[in-house]
Amino acid sequence: xxxxxxxxGPLSVPEGAIVSLNCTYSNSAFQYFMWYRQYSxxxxxLLMYTYSxxxxxxxxxxxxxxxxxxxxxxxxxDSQPSDSATYLxxxxxxxxxxLVFGKGTKLTVNP
Amino acid sequence: DxxxxxxxxxxxxxxxxxxxxxxxxxxxxxxxxxxxxxxxQGPQFxxxxxxxxxxxxxNFPDRFSARQFPNYSSELNVNALLLGDSALYLCASxxxxxxxxxxxxxxxxxxx
Lengths: 111, 112
Fold this sequence. Notes:
The complex is a heterodimer. By secondary structure, chain A is mainly β. In chain A, 0% of the residues lie in helices and 55% in strands. Chain A is built from no helices and 11 strands. By secondary structure, chain B is mostly beta strands. Chain B is built from no helices and 11 strands. Chain B has strands at 5-7, 10-13, 19-24, 31-37, 44-50, 53-57, 64-68, 74-78, 87-94, 102-103, 107-111. Chain B is globular and about 40 Å long. Chain A binds chain B through residues 4, 6, 8, 32, 34, 36, 41-46, 49, 88, 90, 92, 94-104, and chain B through 4, 6, 31, 33, 35, 40-45, 48, 50, 55-56, 58, 88, 90, 92, 96-106, 108.
């Protein structure tokens, strides 16, 4: 079993839809949870950074962490065509530990 | 402020050759990590350096090596290139090695 599982999609939604992206993980030692957005042939861009459980909101983006279920989510409200990208979840056991990534979910928002 | 910068952006090498990739972290960041991303996969951890010392190494062969300089910039070296080394190589910097890591644009290496 992989440490981090992420459905690669692809996921296609109409403009304005609410998008839900998810990852599950197996290692209960993970404490730091990140979401990155990666446009084609570019480096990942950090969107959300969360420590331990709970919710975090930043504009149209909301990150949720449920450590009891080993499940994290990213919600995108009022999705835009510019949100079309691959979304990567990443997590770490501790502050100075390596990041472990999911495979990424490819999202297309259609005008 | 400038973000993480990597050079070169693209590179084509022949099997068996050696390659050096370079990374300059965000100003004030003392930790640099290297990741390899093959098409359709998430990045895989190669190395982490903090204050010029190796803090971690991923499951990569000894053909991969890295170092960090006094100005916190870093180089990744890969010897005896294989076709399977073709990938996007990403550098990430963070403050004190914390998980909140910021990535550069990457170097796309093609081995032919």
